[in-house]
């Protein structure tokens, strides 16, 4: 009889429920194995509301690296950072996902983007973080730990976890194709 297989530890650089669920869903679909998913609160070292593509990617990278420093025994470290950017006036929302493996392989992917309502954009320009702006505009509480902006705007057709899952799968491409250089 073979000994039980050791679970691989995946540390998600957040305690946000949709981010942990998206990580679990992406890993189990892309790299079927036995995993233990654990959230950890670490700094992104960028503003609470990143306002550019570059700043958002840096936040996701920093989160993954800070999780790695805090929990070096893990097999994978995942950073997910939501951000916004302007496009000729309107503001769109998106996220970056960075996965670091214990072999130092790195996978990155960006979610799709969607435009935000004017009231939300006004609050963002005043310095309000997207999750808080959504709560104010939609009369919600702690929506970023639930369906998120995308869930509110799609009436739940796409919730925050589902929104992140596709990008999580794409960030795992280098691990799925380990014999290729990325």
UniProtKB/TrEMBL annotation:
<keyword id="KW-0547">Nucleotide-binding</keyword>
<dbReference type="GO" id="GO:0103023">
    <property type="term" value="F:ITPase activity"/>
</dbReference>
<dbReference type="GO" id="GO:0000166">
    <property type="term" value="F:nucleotide binding"/>
</dbReference>
<dbReference type="InterPro" id="IPR050299">
    <property type="entry name" value="YjjX_NTPase"/>
</dbReference>
<dbReference type="InterPro" id="IPR002786">
    <property type="entry name" value="Non_canon_purine_NTPase"/>
</dbReference>
<keyword id="KW-0479">Metal-binding</keyword>
<dbReference type="GO" id="GO:0009117">
    <property type="term" value="P:nucleotide metabolic process"/>
</dbReference>
<feature type="domain" description="Non-canonical purine NTP phosphatase/PRRC1">
    <location>
        <begin position="13"/>
        <end position="175"/>
    </location>
</feature>
<dbReference type="InterPro" id="IPR026533">
    <property type="entry name" value="NTPase/PRRC1"/>
</dbReference>
<keyword id="KW-0460">Magnesium</keyword>
<protein>
    <recommendedName>
        <fullName>inosine/xanthosine triphosphatase</fullName>
        <ecNumber>3.6.1.73</ecNumber>
    </recommendedName>
</protein>
<dbReference type="GO" id="GO:0046872">
    <property type="term" value="F:metal ion binding"/>
</dbReference>
<keyword id="KW-0546">Nucleotide metabolism</keyword>
<dbReference type="InterPro" id="IPR029001">
    <property type="entry name" value="ITPase-like_fam"/>
</dbReference>
<keyword id="KW-0464">Manganese</keyword>
<dbReference type="GO" id="GO:0006772">
    <property type="term" value="P:thiamine metabolic process"/>
</dbReference>
<dbReference type="Pfam" id="PF01931">
    <property type="entry name" value="NTPase_I-T"/>
</dbReference>
<keyword id="KW-0378">Hydrolase</keyword>
